[in-house]
Amino acid sequence: MNQVYEKVVRCYESIKDRLPFTPRVALVLGSGLGDYADTIEVKGEISYSDIKDFPVSTVPGHEGKFIFGFVKDVPVVCMKGRVHYYEGYPITDVVLPARLMKMMGAQILFLTNASGGINPSFSAGSFMLIKDHISCFAPNPLIGANIEEFGCRFPDMSSVYDKELQEIIRKTAREQNIPLGEGIYVQLTGPSFESPAEIKMLRSLGADAVGMSTVVEAIAANHMGMRICGISCVANLAAGMTDNPLTHEEVQEASKKAAPLFRQLITGSIAAFDN
Ligand code: HPA
User: Fold this and answer.
1) pTM for the full model?
2) Annotated catalytic residue 212
3) Does ligand 1 lie within 6 Å of residue 235's CB atom?
4) Catalytic residue list contains 133
5) Pair 200, 134: CB distance under 8 Å
């Protein structure tokens, strides 16, 4: 059997008896959103460190566990903390959690993250519905022997972000009076923030927000036929757009500040996925 696939199966086998239910939505919580789980009806938790061979994050502020609970009536598995490519994991480990959540039964992958705003209409605290993405320098997680159990060798990528889910998120934002921008998210590897010249390049490529996650997970989930949606919380304007140097603390602080509204938007959207 394929070693990458075997590892996901091993993780699944080691926790399958502890799953409180079959989740419908898999929610990946970005920087600053870690306490989202406090707002849901929790039915169970599994620490990443309890899962055999599971990659454990080393980033401060990225505590690692799966939290199972209901958002209104929708069964959800939340990832509190994700692993990033810049931590040194092989790219197949970075997408292992997304594959594992599909194996748990999740049909929808809801990706969230903190980003740097490239589109000048954004400011710290803006939310951006991800309409499409650009992968920049991060390896494709599907490189290697194709895992037939997940999907085909050459997956179509022409509509990765589900149009119906996008419309539900837009409608939720409108109803709740939450300003929601839209745009293209670009993933670079990190961990250094971008240079001003790189931000100019990314803008000319058509990117509206930049970060260090999400795209590789979306590629793996799209391969498996999951329905995908994503919202980015702009934590800062990207390098060179203001006079301020960027720090991880600033990103965390801005994400934390935006978190209550972000939580509201996510909860309202997931509840509406039920219809
Ligand atoms: N660049 C990359 N990733 C980020 C940024 C940024 O400016 N802000 C938050 N995550």
Assistant:
1) 0.96
2) yes
3) yes
4) no
5) no
Rg (CA), the chain: 17
Q: Report the relative pairing of strands 108-117 and 74-80 from DSSP bridges.
A: unpaired
> By alpha-carbon position, which residue is closest to atom 7 of ligand 1?
116
What phi and psi values does residue 135 have, to the nearest 5 degrees?
-100, 125
CB 117 less than 6 A from any atom of ligand 1? no
pLDDT tens digits, residue range 94-129? 999 999 999 999 999 999 999 999 999 999 999 999
For residue 191, say if its preceding peptide bond is cis, omega within 30 degrees of 0.
Answer: yes
Smallest CA-to-CA distance from 102 within 61, 147, 62, 57 is with 147
Q: Which residue segments constitute the domains of the chain, with CATH numbers given?
A: 3-273 (3.40.50.1580)
Q: Where on the phi/psi map is residue 38: left (φ > 0), alpha (ψ -120 to 50), or beta?
A: alpha
263 backbone dihedrals φ, ψ, rounded to 5° = -60, -45
- Residue 31 is among the residues annotated as catalytic for this protein: yes
